[in-house]
Amino acid sequence: MACRDIPKAYTAADEIRQKTGNGNIVVKKLDLASLKSVRELAKYVQENEKRLDVLINNAGIMMCPKWKTEDGFEMQFGVNHLGPFLLTNCLLDLLKKSAPSRVVVVSSVAHVTGSIHFDDINLDRNYDNLVSYRQSKLANILFARELAARLQGTGVTVYSLHPGFIRTELVRHLFPQWAWWKKMLASVAMMIVKSPWEGAQTTIYCAVEESLANESGLYYRQVNVCGDNGNFQTRCIFIRGGTAHKIHGSVRFTVSWYMFIVTRLLHPATLLHFFFLFTTRGVNNNRFVSMHRSNSRRSD
């Protein structure tokens, strides 16, 4: 277990030992915001482990303020992509030696609206924490696809996935930015999203499911591979091949509707408006629609 918060890591390790009876658990420090820390962990693994059957790049950060990593990179791009990228590449020889082995990259559905800003990778000119998060998650997908292509024939397979919306501390940086009523709605929403146990299932599926042994470079969601038939949850047309223009053109409509549901219909402002609509008698529907549009613009 490679973790940044060592006390929490030891607590989790003890719980695993108690519930599984497996005492063979090692906790090591890893700060993905430090490339030095990444190299130190990779060196430890290389020197102390004979095999590496599965590498799961799970850690991440979401929509934080404009912070920099120890090496001067934008924090979300550094932690979500550059750190796992370096760690994976440092451990490739051991993964190949251990084949059949797997690399699992935890991405996000946010990648569907992401872009890589090659001319301003740190977003110094116009920082936006959501744009940054989307960029880092798209980088995860691109990395997984390219790594899979380069590792063909080695016995190392690669998987990327969206774990779902999970009740964790990942959204902790959003709360200070929200008004009180958004915090209240978000607190209610957190009670109906996936638990950490539920959110881990797609990751576990990619790590151990035997039927996936001959698949590599694909994108998974809800404990299944996303199809390439144009349904709303897929970007596998992209994962399976094709140019960026074809990717965006083929799934733009369905992805747009999905993102509309996630970012607009489930937006705290929208939920609050529906609350007033169904709890207030005699509301004029036309007036409600007008109010919703006006307030949505302000909340953006």
UniProtKB/TrEMBL annotation:
**Tree of life domain:** Eukaryota
What Gene Ontology molecular function terms does this protein carry? oxidoreductase activity
Q: Which UniProt keywords apply?
A: Membrane, Oxidoreductase, Transmembrane, Transmembrane helix
Q: Which Gene3D superfamilies match?
A: NAD(P)-binding Rossmann-like Domain (3.40.50.720)
Give the SUPFAM superfamilies listed for this entry: NAD(P)-binding Rossmann-fold domains (SSF51735)
Where would you find the membrane-spanning parts of this chain?
257-278
Family of this protein: Belongs to the short-chain dehydrogenases/reductases (SDR) family.
Q: What is this protein called?
A: Si:ch211-107o10.3
What is the scientific name of the source organism? Cyprinodon variegatus (Sheepshead minnow)
